[in-house]
């Protein structure tokens, strides 16, 4: 049976999440990062003020 789940994780890296899921007996087919909080803030700092 194939199921899709969405997980929200704080303060972790993708490989750490995959290792934790596998340790819990969850077979991981793929992990995709859809949204990273603070990403928009980091990009706005690169733009000079107009």
Description:
This protein is mainly alpha-helical and 50 residues long. 36% of the residues lie in helices and 0% in strands. It contains two helices and no strands. It has helices at 14-23, 39-46. The longest helix is centred in the middle third of the chain and has 10 residues, at 14-23. It is elongated, with a radius of gyration of 16 Å. The chain starts with 13 loop residues before the first helix and ends with a helix.
Produce the secondary structure layout.
Blueprint: H1 14-23, H2 39-46
Q: How many runs of DSSP E, i.e. beta strands?
A: 0
Mass-distribution shape? elongated
User: Helical residue percent?
Assistant: 25-40%
Number of helices: 2
Q: Which stretches are low in confidence, meaning pLDDT under 50 for 5 or more residues running? A: none
User: What value does the Rg take, in angstroms?
Assistant: 16 Å
Main sheet record: none
Portion in strands = under 5%
User: Kindly state the mean pLDDT as a whole number?
Assistant: 78
Q: Output the structural class.
A: mainly alpha
Ends apart, CA distance between termini: 54 Å
Order of helices and strands: HH
Can you give me a brief rundown of this structure?
The chain has about 50 residues and is an all-alpha fold. It is about 35% helix and about 0% strand.
